Amino acid sequence: MDERNDLILNIQKQFPKLSKGQKRIAQFIIENYEKAAFMTASKLGMETSVSESTVVRFANNLGFEGYPQLQRALQDIIKTKLTTVQRVDMGKEYSTDLEIVERIMKSDMDNMRHTIEMINAAKIETVIDMILNAERIYVLGLRSSKSLADFLGFYLGLILGNVVLVGHGISDIYEQMLRISDKDLLIGLSFPRYSSRSIEVTRYAKEQGAKIVAITDSEISPIANMADEYLTAKSNMASFVDSLVAPLSLLNALIVAIGMREKSDIKEHFNKLETIWEKYKIYDGDY
Amino acid sequence: MDERNDLILNIQKQFPKLSKGQKRIAQFIIENYEKAAFMTASKLGMETSVSESTVVRFANNLGFEGYPQLQRALQDIIKTKLTTVQRVDMGKEYSTDLEIVERIMKSDMDNMRHTIEMINAAKIETVIDMILNAERIYVLGLRSSKSLADFLGFYLGLILGNVVLVGHGISDIYEQMLRISDKDLLIGLSFPRYSSRSIEVTRYAKEQGAKIVAITDSEISPIANMADEYLTAKSNMASFVDSLVAPLSLLNALIVAIGMREKSDIKEHFNKLETIWEKYKIYDGDY
Amino acid sequence: MDERNDLILNIQKQFPKLSKGQKRIAQFIIENYEKAAFMTASKLGMETSVSESTVVRFANNLGFEGYPQLQRALQDIIKTKLTTVQRVDMGKEYSTDLEIVERIMKSDMDNMRHTIEMINAAKIETVIDMILNAERIYVLGLRSSKSLADFLGFYLGLILGNVVLVGHGISDIYEQMLRISDKDLLIGLSFPRYSSRSIEVTRYAKEQGAKIVAITDSEISPIANMADEYLTAKSNMASFVDSLVAPLSLLNALIVAIGMREKSDIKEHFNKLETIWEKYKIYDGDY
Amino acid sequence: MDERNDLILNIQKQFPKLSKGQKRIAQFIIENYEKAAFMTASKLGMETSVSESTVVRFANNLGFEGYPQLQRALQDIIKTKLTTVQRVDMGKEYSTDLEIVERIMKSDMDNMRHTIEMINAAKIETVIDMILNAERIYVLGLRSSKSLADFLGFYLGLILGNVVLVGHGISDIYEQMLRISDKDLLIGLSFPRYSSRSIEVTRYAKEQGAKIVAITDSEISPIANMADEYLTAKSNMASFVDSLVAPLSLLNALIVAIGMREKSDIKEHFNKLETIWEKYKIYDGDY
User: Fold this and answer.
1) What is the domain class of C117-279 according to CATH?
2) Which pTM does this prediction carry?
3) Any idea where the SIS domain is (chains A, B, C, D) (predicted)?
4) Which C positions 179-238 lie with beta carbon below 8 A of chain B?
5) Is the dihedral of CA B260, B266, B268, B273 positive or negative?
């Protein structure tokens, strides 16, 4: 991965052309990019004794539409390098429970907004086609992505039937994927910090000829690189918790879209389930 | 449950005072509230041959700030009665994959906005205090709420250590809760359609003297009624999938707030984990 | 269930023809059959002031080959009625850890011996044919039978591929069995005390037209009654632990016999797995 | 591991003193020990043109009580080297399902007999003391040993309460063992082929100061080497299935012995559970 070097190199390359104030920004970022990535334009301005609009022009000069885009690029670089310990420290300036809760939830909303903006109609359609055309669909998600995998596996299983959720029970992932072939699809869910095991298993599936769909946080994630197609959703690095709110919403939406394509089938399944649920009183009847 | 009757009764009570057009709206809602709950103000106007602004005034006359609030009240009533089959039909007017995906994700954002608005500082603090003061914390979530429970149990377990995630493995929930007592806390996660089993287990915990915190969708949910304290997050009924995006974001935020209270402890834990993760190459090192 | 009445009625019917000493035995058994079922012939003789050989003749008069057969019949009657609390008390006369360990393990060996004696070549072949001919094989085992189901599901999955282990993860058993049909097979594992849920689920599978194979403790168990074919293995009631040693050995043997029928296939699978295991260092290389 | 060399070296050392016929046996074993380990004395005699009694004397000369002991030593050497593929081939000479089933189950009985013979009263007592004195008990078993771990964890959890079954759910083993300390105990279950991960995790627990109890197949297994105390049970290598019948029986017995020490406690727990089981109809009432 040399993305970091790319941005930093670019800053160094532009350096001679920059104004005096912008040079101070550049210097600060090169030396403190991990800190800079979490400063507002105004704070970065204060730190380097320039106006906020100078900071914005600096971002423009580097080819970014605005400061938020530069900031995001900086965050993307360091994101996967931040340890949980550093992430605990990031929350330090908030004093009340309420402030923390509101900050985290608003950050989740930002991630969702960002995720919706990135949606690409063609990619969505390709992914759904790949899912509907696969002979078997393997769903992979480890560590914090496991609850995403459980959710996706549960609903895809209801709609489609030919779904295998790997990484459960007494057998190993490879044993569960023993028969994966070029007619099959692996849906890999992987968000920072990327699990080594998920990457390894995805590589194995690819070697067996299976198609790969990645659900991940960026087009440069290790699993996206191996995928035939990928969808991205922003995960949250604003705390020591891996926030998977936007990814969950994307999965929600994907499941519903698949369901709409298989509508008569799933109505039949749900009719059957409703009968069972009522017979065995699975849901509370008074509500 | 008499909430439905309350709203319908209120409409009937206001009926004499309403304008001719508003009476047609009232009539239509009383007879078709399940349909009305999903119409826009303009569609409801067309259906009853009144203007959109008449619909809005009708909502105001019933004491609602606007039509969206009336609509939400109608949706709340019927929410838990909609079967999955009806919910599949609700998606019918959308034609492209993209439209569906965007609609679902925007609906998740609405839920999040609504959830943030409902946040109550005192409740948050009480819940965190209850969690930090419990001798043991039992985390309960079944069916689609199980992935929420997994997520909460995982992080609370990292931070606190005295956490039991029930409903896993070969033992039954009651066997796992054999020793629950009045020094312990049960955190019950329950969203529509409410699992009968979750209600039953929560009642059992209460009978054993345990404190109850409910994380649920409304103050009138069955599990909120039994709880010593509760937090609410909007779940989604816009499709056959139980959307738990806003609840997941609330849990995220809650976990971070708890972590901030126990900051030195969790830094120590994470320091230890980082060493282990590096030693066993749990995370991808190139990213 | 009138098995109890049958044996007791039979004793009462034979009563007039019995010798004086045998009458005392009969009386004692009728009044204390739950106690008698766990006495040796010699102890029962002492209790009723007769010789051990009188006890044996008494068993013969009732049509049993010997005392062990009578005793087993008594145990079968009460087996499923004994609560765990009674079963804890059954261990009372043993004083050292060693005595307990040896008693339990010897009792497991007796169960195995008994199980091997009951093996029926035709039943074994039928069960294997049913397994190899099914389109999908669902494996069901709940509560203490769940570890048996995990074991069977794991190895059948390796050999055959079309295996679904139900009762795991976030979906409900019925959701996992949504598509079960008359081309499919349910293997139900059920040992005393019989789980109500297992019986209910097996009934559901039968209603959907699926074939049923029961692996259970006796031909009169509830699940055997519903099965197209069944195999029996003795479970242990000598303690509060449900001993599933003989059932596990039967599953072992069944899996190997299926493997031998599919030999070239499984060699191919294992060749592939050995390569993976070596590549990822799954097994310790020094041993 | 040089056990193999030890036995082979010993044969080579004794070689000069052996009779002509015994020399042929020695030669054959050195060159074909993997084959010899599964021959009867009579077959080995035929292969090397000596009488069966010469084979027995050969075993005696090497210091073994009889041929079975020599054979077992040979089997122990190669056991962990046999791949699943070789183990599939080992079943080749059996033609009917019944023969296979009986052979496997009898081999399980042999393992149990062998295991009972090896029981050591002092070790049993030490292990039970260690279990009862630990602050927390972590139960570890991976791959095929996982169903053993589930079983042990389930019952120990009922009896003792302070039990953590690791290797489940979305968190990693190390995260579940984050707080393990020198007041705690790890019970490691490990049978051939030994999982590398289990060895690694046991080493980690030891480094944290925890006491280690190994339940394994021999005193020279990797996990026994790290343990403060260990118990052995014979596992089966007669097929491609890891037979864990004797280990399961040993766990059964161990659980009952622990239960007898905590008798009044577990009666109280079971009384409570019986009430719950009846209330929620967990067990079938007709049986």
Assistant:
1) alpha beta
2) 0.79
3) 127-265
4) none
5) negative
